[in-house]
Amino acid sequence: AQSVTQLDSHVSVSEGTPVLLRCNYSSSYSPSLFWYVQHPNKGLQLLLKYTSAATLVKGINGFEAEFKKSETSFHLTKPSAHMSDAAEYFCVVTPDNYGQNFVFGPGTRLSVLP
Amino acid sequence: EAGVAQSPRYKIIEKRQSVAFWCNPISGHATLYWYQQILGQGPKLLIQFQNNGVVDDSQLPKDRFSAERLKGVDSTLKIQPAKLEDSAVYLCASSLGAEETQYFGPGTRLLVL
């Protein structure tokens, strides 16, 4: 069975400073990994996905994530936070047999201070 | 391209009442998902359809929840009777196929009193 741990329930950064949202996973298979963002009263939006190609994945809005198999991690980063980045971020894992057990982490709420 | 549509956006009911949610996926998307997102938690998959067939409903409380996708397009999720713990946001998502990116609707926020 696979699971996802998001180590911080809430992260607060100042505008213009780097963002790091941590995600660790466990999976019996070679996983596909995703980051989704959820703004208040809006639907979940895909930021980026890893599907066993390049380990450094670039997404929308300047976000990127690096897949590290040895650390079972898929941390999300952005060099400079913007006020519009304030939202809830979910790390998602699915095993190699995609379509089964698409598992969300508990989420990390990102606050961006002026 | 139009996104995933859901209605209603909000619903308040009393426990033991019935409620139904509707989802219209992105045109051409064969796979449709229903998720339950309880406040402070990540979404949990309830049921997955491939066209009009059920692929996975292992986490659907079948004694009170039901879902259908009769023509392989729109889908409805029903709760009968509702319990207090069913208060949550119900999200619908669709994808071209089971191995493709999922696109989410805005959700239906349910409050059971």
Structural class of chain B: mainly beta
Sheet of most strands of chain B = 7 strands, mixed
pLDDT averaged residue by residue of chain B: 93
Query: Tell me, what's the shape of chain B?
Result: globular
Q: What would you say this structure looks like, in words?
A:
The complex is a heterodimer of chains A (114) and B (113). Chain A has 114 residues and is an all-beta fold. Helix content of chain A is 0%, strand content 51%. Chain A contains no helices and 12 strands. Chain A has strands at residues 3-5, 10-14, 19-21, 24-26, 32-38, 44-50, 56-58, 64-68, 73-78, 87-94, 103-104, 108-113. In chain A, the strands form 3 sheets. In chain A, strands 2, 5, 6, 10, 11 and 12 form a 6-stranded mixed beta sheet that branches. In chain A, strand 8 and strand 9 (73-78) form a beta hairpin. Chain B has 113 residues and is mainly β. Chain B starts with a strand and ends with a strand. Chain B has strands at residues 5-7, 10-13, 19-24, 31-37, 44-50, 53-56, 65-68, 75-79, 88-95, 103-104, 108-112. In chain B, a hairpin with a 6-residue loop joins strand 4 (31-37) and strand 5. The mean pLDDT of chain B is 93. In chain B, the strands form 2 sheets. In chain B, strands 2, 4, 5, 6, 9, 10 and 11 form a 7-stranded mixed beta sheet that branches. Chain B has a 4-stranded antiparallel beta sheet with strand order 1-3-8-7, with no helix packed on it. Chain B contains no helices and 11 strands. The chains are: A mainly beta (114), B mainly beta (113). The A-B interface holds A 4, 34, 36, 41-46, 49, 90, 92, 98-107 and B 3-4, 31, 33, 40-45, 48, 55-56, 91, 93, 98-99, 101-107.
